[in-house]
Amino acid sequence: MSKPKQPSATNPSPRLVVENALLVDPSRGLEAEGHLVCEAGKVISCDAGPAPEALRSDAGELIDARGLLLSPGLWDIHVHFREPGQEDKETIATGSQAAARGGFTDVVSMPNTQPVVDTAGTVRLILDRAREAGLCRVHPTGAITVGLESKQMVEYADLVDAGAVGFTDDGRPVEDGGLMRRAMDYSRILGVPMITHAEDLTLSEGGAMHEGAWSTRLGLRGIPYAAEVVCIARDIELARHTGAHLHVAHVSSRLAVQLIRRAKEDGLQVTAETAPHFLDLTDADCVDYDPRFKMNPPLRTIDDQEALIEALADGTLDCIATDHAPHTDTEKNRPFAEAPFGVIGLETAFAVGHDRLVRRGSMGYSRLIELMSTAGARIMGLPGGGLAPGSRSDFALIDPEETWTPQVRDLGSKGRNCPWLGRSLTGRVVATHLGEGFSFRRAAVDTARRD
Q1: Which residues are CB-neighbours of 53 under 8 A, at least 6 positions away?
Q2: Which of 175, 194, 311 is nearest to 252 (CA)?
């Protein structure tokens, strides 16, 4: 995989014309066969129908994208790239490779690295490493508390000045409600979201999967719904009190959906995400004790899954985020109860969403792309997620009909803890364009689809 080519005064970025694609741009309500023209990192024209001849005639590259879907670059607002400190699991470069292969141009990284992202210097390190990799934009979040220990607030303004786009202790909850209230006050003043990891550790301690019929059958200690919902309820009330923007990470249960729906009906600034694994898998998939199906929150029941899908369709849940969490094979290939929580999903996210939501009739392409692109940029208050003229030329080309079976060779990530390895999926990213060049492009686009 190569970095996007950078133009210079003597070698300007060539004009790229993509024709005959199914354009899906939820930011403009556009879903039609049409064209995209971009140059020097900006969209010049993106609309239904053929490209204007004046723009087409002097194109440096012309791609016939017949049969492909063209969307704004995808956004994942919840990833773990592990660097600094856990480079055996993932680096910013390998995580960026995985993102590019999955059609993502922007990701929001979590702060539970080693050291924790609780200083401005660590924020700047992540931004520097992401620029060096050059394969996607990495937007770091800062920790809510020093060392994720729920004891001392960080210097929030310093982290935002360095480039942090929000705050979270993801991986652990903020146990001190008073501290969380004060942190929300700061996040409101600074205009960034507070992202909650909703887990009551006194209720989840020792659990390995969802508490229910399957945990009983498998002899594994369960994690009850209450571990998630009591924390969400607390933080919604704190958002009501402070007026802060609360974003709820990795929603897994129908009870959590009910709380979020009521908060939105009350007019609170509450947004929420769920993950591809919650849409496609359930606690029954843990039947073989395969640690690839162990994540936190855990896979829940088919009733929860149906409630999450309904909530995505009706707008109660705002976006899909992978919670991409790579581990080494040594760590993950332990007995189920001893293995760490977490799965990877950047390379497979679109295919899982497409299979589970579009092909089964829960929504159309525009809503899926909104959930995987436009909404993420909007939640984070950052540019992106659209292809209006003048915007950055970040886009993904996707073959919605290609059926494929993910293999290890398809992964850009160091992680191999992907629950969809060996499972048939439909819909595959064939190219990702980041600003002024392709960060990922399969050979089929280089040859068969170019005039």
Answers
A1: none
A2: 311
158 catalytically annotated: no
What is the residue whose two structure tokens read 């332990």? Answer: 334
At CA 279, angle to CA 258 and CA 259, rounded to 5? 10
DSSP states along 85-140: T-TTT--HHHHHHHHHHTTEEEEEE-S-SSS-S-SHHHHHHHHHHHHHH-SSEEEE
Both tokens assigned to 267: 């007019």
pTM for the predicted model, two decimal places: 0.95
Maximum Cα interatomic distance, the chain, rounded to a whole number of Å: 68
Q: Which of 118, 304, 323, 394 is catalytic?
A: 323
Q: What is the pLDDT of residues 289-346, one digit of tens each?
A: 999 999 999 999 999 999 999 999 999 999 999 999 999 999 999 999 999 999 999 9
Q: Which CATH code is given to the segment(s) 73-380?
A: 3.20.20.140
The domain locations on the chain are 16-71+392-450, 73-380
Say how far residue 416 (Cα) sits from the centre of its chain: 18
